[in-house]
Amino acid sequence: MKGDAYIPIYNEETDSWYPSNRAADLLVHLNHIWRDIQTLNGLRLQERSKSDISDKLLFKHIIIEFLSLLEPLRELQEIAMKAPRLIKGKPAPWRYITKREFFETKRLAKEFWRGVNPVHKQLYEIRNRIGAHRELSDLGSIQLLWKRLDAADYVAAMNTFPPLFKHLSELNIYEWSRSFGEQNGKIALSTFGTLIITPWEDAFDSENETI
Q: How far apart are CA 171 and CA 100, in angstroms?
């Protein structure tokens, strides 16, 4: 992902690159969520030696943020898997995915969802009952949910996100544009171009190649 992409809160420069297609919108959105998680976790690590309650409260908000990235991540993953392919003997598309990138997306996505699925139900229960929503329930069940707010039980699953996100962010599937202000009464725009060197050694053999 471009380092100077426009991200609300973190980057409000007027000359930043703005997302210009759905994939880029999702990429910026996910980056924003993950940076919020990193900020919250930094605060949690500072506070946990002082108060177990502060640790749990901050981690509860991390869970809420983490769950909010699952659906956009799934959509971005699907866009990548269905992206135009670089195929030997055919002109290179403006945006495309190579054979190696396709398989790496598939591998990392499988690793991520395999890590999240075992704790998926618990995370949603925490979010829905004592997180984003606060249910009035019997004290025993609420106490049990608070006991489940142990970062050690979920961090391993959450840490499978950065490798997948880093890989997705490096794919050639994003459109970016940049405004340079008005010139001759018109808004001057620049569009981030395609790759200069095409990796033909990593191309698919055909459109219908079995994968």
A: 11
pLDDT tens-place string over residues 76-99: 999 999 999 999 999 999 999 999
> Is there a domain that residue 9 lies in?
no
Q: Domain total for the chain? A: 1
> Can you give the pLDDT at residue 188?
42
Q: Are 68 and 132 in contact (CB under 8 A)?
A: no
Q: Which residues pair with 5 in a beta bridge?
A: 17
- Amino acid code (one letter) for 62: I
**Helices 161-169/70-81 angle, 10° precision:** 40
Domain hosting 175: range is 18-202
CB burial of residue 64 (10 Å; 0-12, 13-18, 19+) = middle
pTM of the predicted protein model = 0.84
How many separate helices (H) and strands (E) can be counted in the chain?
7, 3
Q: For strand 176-183 and strand 186-191, is the pairing parallel, antiparallel, or unpaired?
A: antiparallel
